[in-house]
Design brief:
Keywords: Membrane, Transmembrane, Transmembrane helix. The protein is mainly α and about 120 residues long. It has one domain. It contains 4 helices and no strands.
Length: about 120
């Protein structure tokens, strides 16, 4: 796995988490366009991570739990748009909380992807 790409995903997720916490505290709804540009950049980074991860998985000789690794890659990609859609549908503080949970899920999945790749969680 590409460590730099994982660091980029975690950095974008961290910025989005901070912005979401601010929105939850201020009870702001709906999120603004720059916020959705940030989420779009995160989704693009996750999509690149899926492609790079699948190529790396195909080329590695390491003992990696392939189906689990692929499932984590794809789920991390899908959870952000689903969380954003739910935040747009539920235009209260709780919609932003759902988005916050989705972002925290992405961060947790990044840690798990790293452990799967290194063989610690296989």
């Amino acid at each position: 796995m590409n460590v730099w790409l994982m660091a980029l995903v975690l950095a974008l997720t961290g910025v989005a988490v901070v912005a979401t916490v601010v929105m939850v505290v201020r009870d702001q709804s709906p999120p603004s366009d720059p916020y959705f540009l940030l989420l779009g950049a995160l989704v693009v980074a996750l999509l690149v991570q899926v492609v790079v991860g699948l190529v790396a998985l195909a080329r590695t000789d390491a003992d990696v739990a392939g189906p689990t690794f692929v499932a984590y890659l794809l789920t991390a990609l899908l959870v952000v748009p689903v969380g954003a859609a739910l935040a747009l549908v539920e235009r209260s503080r709780w919609g932003n909380v759902v988005l916050l949970v989705a972002l925290m899920t992405v961060a947790a999945m990044q840690v798990r992807l790293d452990s799967l790749w290194t063989g610690a969680g296989a």
